[in-house]
Please model this.
Amino acid sequence: MINALRWIVFTVAALAMNFPVIVTLVTSFKSARELSINPGLWINQPTFENYLRVLTQTDRFNIYSYLWNSTVASLIGTGLAILLAFPAAYAIARSEVGKHTLLPVVINLRAVPLIIFAIPLYMMYQFLGLLDTQLGLGLILTIVNTPLALVILVNAISDVPLELDEAARVDGASSWQIMVSIIRPVVRPAMVTTFIFGFITAWNEFLFGLMLTTNKAVPMTVGASFFFAASGGGVQWGTASAVMILGALPPVLLGLLMYRQISGSMTAGAIKG
Amino acid sequence: MAIIKRAEARAYLTPLVGFLLLFLGFPAVINLIYSVSTVDFQTLRSPTLSGFGNYVSVLADRDFWRATSFSLRFGILTAMIECLLGLFLAIFLAPLLSKRSALMAPLMLPLMVAPAMIGLMYRLVLHEFAGPVPYYLFMWFGDSPAFLDVSHALWTLIVVETLQWTPFAFLLFYMAYVAVPIDVREAAALDGASPIKTLWFVELPLMLPTLVIAFFIRFIDGFRVFDNVYALTGSGAGGSTTSLSIYIYQAFFKEGAIGKAVAASVVLFLTSLIVLYGLNWLAGRRRRGP
Model:
């Protein structure tokens, strides 16, 4: 009896939380004509014409370019964050340096509204010629991803037994060799988790994409809003819906991957404990 | 304990520290200088020091206080609702979810979608002709409120934010709830405690640190909100949904008031420093506490 109630609560919660996604998905399969007479949640005549239009008529708004920009900037923003955070995490986990100043400062960055740095960064980018470039956006996304990368990697390296380092040290390995060929393979799962979290965060970033790009390097989140500003006869809801579904797909697919990994590591821990 | 030498450790930290100094330290200094200068887009690289005029004009700006008040109300209300809903879902659904982990997927899905995209999606959901919500409200009740006008916009946005981020609070609480040791629960049951009493006197106190952390994270994210509000209403409804982040953005990009935007940034920075300091002090006291 109470279990039935749990199922009802679960269903209502899942539907309510995903409601905008469901509506957008439904709308993306409706023709403009059907949409004007039927804004409801069912589809009379499903059609792919919206997706076809988005993927073939790219003269005004090119979705491939938005997807590509987001991919490149997110890869830079995630890869560079890991590259910078990994040696730092190794140093913090294996010495006292950085533990009391750098680590707390970077962790707290997560909570600082990054918009306060936006204006100087905009002026700096203008000076350096980084405005409206994938690299420029990627560098900002690195800042966004650094706190989480550092925390996950410090925790992961701290969990690696010190005996591993010591044994390698006895064999004459330098700390660089230990970091690269002993620690790195062991914390690989943590790196993958960092990468997936970071990529999703980077892909979904909007504020800096809006401010620092105008044309060549526009990411998907900003590009999607262009379809809503389309003049002449108002918003093409079917087209806009197809764009949003396509633009939301990469992080959602990655996220479902991550969810598998989370539940996988949870069950692994259960067996070990 | 220290397995690598100090000098080596410093070398490993250098790239990260250098990057942070360049991309955050340098901008912070620029912020401070420009906030006490007269500057516009023509004299961008040669600001003239002019005292605290920018701060005075920000603090005297009614729109600034309006934005601050919006951000505060938005942050507190969404954080509270998200934590309460998340806590309820975590505890009530735990028996269901512990056996079927696949059920987690739909509850986590909103976290994977960009807040800006969610904002855009709600433009469709709430649109008076194309949106299903007004459509069904008209069909069933013969009337539908204007969700984005001055009197409803705040609550519409709160619902939008809450529905997307309750999963975050839920996830933290669920993990904390599952992590309560089984022998603690068994001991409470042996002592004859009812499930409600076990929850109130045993499980909730154990989850308290997570509750506090989740509330603060959600408050900070709500306080600095930009993406979904901007995508859904812009500054919307006569400026009634201008958050502090949107205020800074508009001062810079729409008005070109660089000094004002930068001064507002510094005010926001100092405010978040105070909040963070308080939070860390709280956490430190907890660690040292009994």
